Amino acid sequence: MSRILVDIKGFGRQYLRSIIGAFFTFAFPILLIVLFGSIYSGSGTQKVSLPVQNLDGSSLSVAYLNELNNTTLVNIEMIPADSNITTYINDNSLSLALQIPANFRSKIMSGLGPNYSGPVFVTVYGDKSQSTFGTAAAAVETASMSFNYNLSRTLPLVAQEVKGLKEGYKFLDYFLPGVIGITVMTNSLFSMSSICAEYRQRGYFKLLATTKLRKHEWLLSKFVFFSIILILSLLATFAVASVFFGTHSTITPLSLIMIPAGAFLFVSLGMLLGVAIKDPESGVAVANAIGFPMMFLSGSFFPLDMMPHFLQLIATALPLTYFNNGLRDTMVYGNTGGAIINLLIVVVIGFIFFFLASRLMSWKER
Amino acid sequence: MSEELIQVEGLSKHYPPDVKAVDNVSFAIQAGQIFSMLGPNGAGKTTTVEILEGLRNPTSGTATIFGVDVTKDYSALRERVGILPQSFEPFDNLKPIEAVQYWAGLYDIKMTKSQVNTLLERVDLTERKSVLSKNLSGGEKRKLGIALSLINEPELLFLDEPTTGLDPKARRDLWRLIEEIRKKGTTVFLTTHYLEEAEKLADDVAIMHKGKIVARGSPHDLIARYGKMTVIVLSGAGSEALREIRRRGIEATEENGDVLVPVKDPTEMRIVFQKISGIELHATDIYTRRQSLEDVFLNLVGAKMDEGDLKT
Hints:
Mean pLDDT of chain A: 87
Shape of chain B: elongated
Strand order of the largest sheet of chain B: 6-7-8-3-9-10
Order of helices and strands of chain A: HHEHEHEHEHHHHHHHHH
CATH superfamily of the largest domain in chain B: P-loop containing nucleotide triphosphate hydrolases
Radius of gyration of chain B: 23 Å
Oligomer: heterodimer
Number of helices of chain A: 14
Largest sheet of chain B: 6 strands, mixed
Helix content of chain B: 25-40%
Structural class of chain B: alpha/beta
Structural class of chain A: alpha/beta
Mean pLDDT of chain B: 88
């Protein structure tokens, strides 16, 4: 036991004195929270800038723009009526624009009479692949429906009422467990794979083999060290998110158990990779090749439901998915049962990696 | 007669398909000596040492230290053996004082601050004890390595090429340190490819080449056995003088424009000088040189050694 503590202290000093170690443990997750917190939590609702060219200029088209404004989804900016809209879009590098046609009023007026010949079309210009397009299109759709009701004097029979499942919870509450997951993975996996390669290349394993420290003690000390600093990292990240961005997710006892479980899993995976890696540069490359796709495919940054089905299938094979899900279950949804199941999956995968790593890793030369 | 600390019998290490890193090597080392295994890069020195350190398993043969079979129970030796591996680099982000405390802990040794300071003083690192290891010079890093290898006060110390890559001053500093360690009664197993180092430090030298020990003895014995004792050097005499000397039946060789005339028996020195003085030579200087391990190595291996690489 004393050798494990000695190794934790010795290794810990080295790790925390390295700029990379300190950055990825504390600065990286806080930076992510501050960045995403600033982007998503600043004003509550994100408005899309919508340049509009009103070729009609009548009171009806102004009323329509008022309806558009009432959606609270867009900020309307006017495009001069005498300019060519496609040229204007190109010249100003716009990704969105709306054009109200010159016959807006006349077509509506004739439609309200007996000679209805179809609706008048307002045109939304934009890149459908961008998320802002969806917001703008939804705003125009909503404004058009509302405008139609008002003009045709129809009373709405069905309307939508939205109730949040977790009142007061923000995007950042769902994002926070993902950031913690990324932090646990990058510190444990990336560090251990390159540490193993560095120890082999610089002969540290041979040196350690000449002491009384045993391999399982060394592995255990890494697991304990990363568990401790990652719990501290979780507390620091949580504090920043809570104090500066008012998040509502909670640190539960289960979330504090999830951290060592995740550290165990990714330390073991890092050591397993380190068995085959010859130098630290390759260690970083291999860890990146495995870690980065896992980061994006395991729901750290955005919900898995947003991904195509085949990527969702891949996500089920990634250990970070279960770690993220477990943290979200306990920190955001209060779903203890779900969190325990995810915790067990993480622990089982961790044991498989640990078993393989401790069997395959050798401090001696072959 | 001194106790034999290390006994090696028929030791071999082969790698597929047909690399014989160590090829049926046998030797024994007496306690209290500096034993030097000398040879070029790839001779099998480090492989032999790492087998003795319990870091590699041999293909065949036996090796015992203090009577303990290193392949079976190395743990029994850990407290009695110190090791400085080849190309030792300390942990970058630990200060020497912390590195010593850390390493002592891994041996279950509780060192007081004053004991740590004494050890660092012994290796002349007192003034640098609070500097991060990554900022130490090459020589200081090796000194720290030696300090770590001395933490358990070993009876036997393995130093695998401790001075490789160091500047001459740092090398001499380490030589002094190694001599002091021996004086305190520690047996030193030193591998090196510096002939001068082996000649200066070692009581007993084994020259290793292509996995085999090709010569063994004290530096003096080896020079007497394999060297040509004394050489008359005709500096800058060139190939014309070489032909003239040889025409008179005198054995001679040329090296970098110098003509070397070996004299095996010192009593013949006068006669050889007389013969040479009868020849018209254009030498810039004439002097005698006692042969060294370098000449022994050249005679045995047929090549010179430069930073561990063979130069024919």
